[in-house]
Write a structure and sequence with these properties.
This protein is α/β, with parallel strands linked by helices and 261 residues long. Helices cover 35% and strands 24% of the residues.
């Protein structure tokens, strides 16, 4: 496991106790993704793998609709796995595991693999999509929501204006991800992707940063050098000049169905 992933694990473990007090957008996106998944033609007792469960937003949103599933719920951060476990009624039979979704350590044959706002943390999304898709049974579905190009555009634009580099990742475009669907001798099928822009309002730019910290989304892009205190103050002052701050989250919803034969 890379040093970058250890940083991500540490950040999310630290955030897990208060994650749900700040993760309103994450809850909304998970519910939107759950609604899309519920329209899929799943069988009555599907085998389900969730990647990056966090504290359980997507798990809880899906369980009423597919309660008879054989569930495996995972996250790279062990404390997140435990918070998710505690949020689920004991009447549900679920296997909880710590797992890096880029190198899954589970046996294939899933009817559904799902992930909400996880893939933006992956180091090699194209390869990861192929690996996860190979764990689907023929006719199985991969469904996810992830951040794409356009996310935090207001934040990044101000950094560029001052000749600075933002610590936030350069997310791929939805069109780029749409070209990642596997199509080879081992795995093929049909994929689609849709996106929406969600505006979040913060009282100040500092509040925006504190929200990211509260949900554990503070691991800088690899190799980023922290801004000086003076440079950060310039960025924050510029963003605060018009009062409350609106930040864009560009969310893509992806669906892939493995070919039946």
């Amino acid at each position: 496991m890379t040093s970058q992933k250890f940083k991500i694990i540490h950040a999310f473990d630290q955030a897990s106790p208060h994650y749900e007090t700040a993760a309103g957008l994450q809850k909304s996106v998970a519910e939107n993704l759950a609604g899309r998944i519920q329209r899929l033609p799943l069988n009555s007792n599907p085998r389900v793998l969730e990647v990056g469960c966090g504290t359980g937003y997507l798990t809880r949103a899906l369980m009423p609709a597919i309660a008879n599933a054989d569930w495996t719920v995972s996250d790279i951060a062990p404390t997140m796995v435990e918070h998710c476990r505690q949020s689920i009624p004991h009447s549900f039979d679920i296997e909880f595991i710590q797992m890096d979704g880029e190198t899954p350590c589970v046996q294939g044959g899933f009817d559904l693999i799902c992930a909400s706002l996880v893939f933006q943390w992956f180091e090699d999304l194209e390869t990861s999509l192929a690996r996860l898709s190979s764990l689907l049974r023929p006719g199985g579905h991969l469904a996810f929501a992830t951040l794409v190009q356009g996310t935090f555009s207001e934040w990044r634009d101000v950094h560029r204006m001052f000749g600075l580099s933002a610590a936030t990742p350069a997310f791929p475009s939805a069109a780029t991800i749409d070209g990642f669907w596997p199509d080879n001798d081992e795995v093929s099928g049909e994929g689609s992707i849709e996106e929406e822009a969600i505006l979040q309002t913060y009282d100040t730019a500092h509040d925006f940063l504190m929200t990211l910290k509260a949900i554990g989304a503070t691991t800088p892009v690899r190799g980023h050098k922290p801004l000086s205190a003076g440079s950060m103050r310039r960025v924050l002052r510029h963003l605060d000049r018009k009062g409350s701050l609106k930040i864009t989250y560009q969310v893509a919803y992806g669906m892939f169905t493995r070919m039946s034969s």
